[in-house]
Design a protein that fits this description.
Number of helices: 6
Largest sheet: none
Number of strands: 0
Order of helices and strands: HHHHHH
Radius of gyration: 15 Å
Strand content: under 5%
Shape: flat
């Protein structure tokens, strides 16, 4: 089943939440074990390794470092619209990369 953009958006929200609360997850690991979000995190972190530098930086800044698109646009001197377009490109990059990986595993 192809990976949809809405699934990617949901995954990225969960990844962002994980990194925002990483300390809590790490501490809970000793008691509860690994949460399934780690599989998702690893899948996306592996996929981003082949992205161009702008998409890589965008992923790290928005989803690992918990910046908003607006704060990132201020930091980088980009317009919010440009960051929004870059994020759309990131979503499409993940869709292509993850769908290709899934088709190879089948």
């Amino acid at each position: 089943m192809p990976i949809t953009l809405s699934l990617i958006r949901e995954d990225l929200k969960n990844i962002k939440y994980y990194y925002a609360r990483k300390k809590v997850f790490d501490e809970a690991f000793e008691s509860t074990g690994v949460n399934e979000i780690m599989e998702t995190v690893n899948k996306y972190n592996n996929a981003i390794q082949s992205a161009n530098p702008k998409l890589y930086d965008l992923y790290v800044s928005l989803y690992l470092q918990n910046h908003t698109q607006e704060s990132l646009s201020d930091m980088l001197g980009y317009t919010p619209e440009y960051v929004h377009r870059l994020n759309k490109s990131l979503l499409k990059f993940f869709q292509t990369k993850l769908n290709n990986a899934e088709s190879k595993s089948n």
